[in-house]
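Re: that chain you flagged

S.,

Sorry for the slow reply, it's been a week of failed gels. I finally had a moment to sit down with the sequence you sent. For the record, here it is as I used it:
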Amino acid sequence: MDKKLIIVEERCPQNHACPAVNVCPVGALTQEAHKAPVIDEAKCIKCGKCSNFCPKKALVLQTL
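Prediction finished late last night. Pasting the structure tokens below so you have them in one place:
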């Protein structure tokens, strides 16, 4: 089953350091200032840790 991690920017408050960035075991999430995080799709292993951790549910692991 293929999956894709997306960011729903409307749910992301973008006013603080994203707590999910530090949860990613492979460093696939980065954040500049307090903007929405950016996903490095080449690194992302689609484990779902960040989407489960995000308190605003702005990170979503979709099944394709």
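What I noticed first: The CA atoms of residues 1 and 36 lie 27 Å apart.

Talk soon,
D.
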